[in-house]
Amino acid sequence: MVKKLITPLQKVLLQRRLCPACTRSLDKARLLESRANGTNIVECECTRVFVYDKDLDTFRRALQEEL
Ligand SMILES: [Zn+2]
After folding, report:
1. 55 alpha carbon to ligand 1 midpoint, in Å?
2. 18 CA distance to ligand 1 centroid (A)?
3. Interval 38-54 mean pLDDT
């Protein structure tokens, strides 16, 4: 059975600025949008979308309502 949870491994990959799905560097992800609230919306080559928080210098998965 497949569980749809964020696994510890995925968390570690994000902390290392790597895409949890394909492990490409998120620093090389395509910038979709730079928002006024201090976040960037970036798209990995595997089409997954992430939010980069400039203040915290961290990546996380984008929520549906943020797209
Ligand atoms: Zn990816």
Report:
1. 23
2. 8
3. 96
Q: Are 51 and 39 in contact (CB under 8 A)?
A: yes
Q: Copy the structure tokens of residue 15.
A: 């902390």
Q: Rounded mean pLDDT of the chain? A: 91
Whole-number Å distance, alpha carbon 43 to ligand 1 midpoint, is 8
Q: Which two tokens stand for residue 20?
A: 């949890």
User: 63: how many CB neighbours lie within 10 A of its CB?
Assistant: 9
Lowest mean pLDDT among 4-8, 25-29, 32-36, 58-62: 4-8
Alpha carbon of 37 to ligand 1 centroid (Å): 24
